[in-house]
């Protein structure tokens, strides 16, 4: 049993998707700096932004799975289905949630009860991704997977 649990440290698929996540999260810092003209290291831990780390993770996992287990395997099909769901969710549902948070935060800033704001707590506005951010995550995922399949 212990042998199986420790096998996670030598699992190429795990290292691939963790690397893809790390690279995508790290790229959010310079991307944010270029777009917003602010250096914010907290972007490494934040959701949303360019590139999509969720997309990078699942795409790298799917490609590495296909490369190691076969692109005709059931496992590859499952990881591709997961990747499509994550990409759709990131650019659809989660992106719309962020847009709604912007509007709700604006309402909270403007509406007062007895001269006091309704709430000081703002909703998180960056929770999803634009289509280009998902494409950016896709590219990161592909590159990391190819690195693990052909170089490492």
Q: How many H/I helical runs?
A: 6
Biggest sheet details: 2 strands, antiparallel
Low-confidence stretches: none
State the secondary-structure class: mainly alpha
User: What portion of residues is helical?
Assistant: 55-70%
Number of E-state strands:
2
How much of the residues is beta strand, in percent?
A: under 5%
**Quick check: average pLDDT?**
83
Set out the fold topology.
Elements (H helix, E strand, L loop, with lengths): L1 H5 L5 H25 L16 H17 L4 H18 L1 H18 L1 E2 L2 E2 L13 H20 L2
Helix pairs in contact: 2-3, 2-6, 3-4, 3-6, 4-5
Structure description:
The chain is mostly helical and about 150 residues long. The protein is built from six helices and two strands, in the order H-H-H-H-H-E-E-H. It has helices at about 1-5, 10-35, 55-70, 75-90, 95-110, 130-150, and strands at about 110-115, 115. Strands 1-2 form a two-stranded antiparallel ribbon. Strand 1 and strand 2 form a beta hairpin. Helix 2 runs antiparallel to helix 3 (about 55-70), helix 2 crosses helix 6 (about 130-150) and helix 4 packs parallel to helix 5 (about 95-110). It is elongated. The mean pLDDT is about 85.
Structure characteristics:
152 residues, mainly alpha, two-stranded antiparallel sheet, 68% helix
Short note summarizing the structure:
The protein is mostly helical and 152 residues long. It has 6 helices and 2 strands; from the N terminus they run H-H-H-H-H-E-E-H. The mean pLDDT is 83.
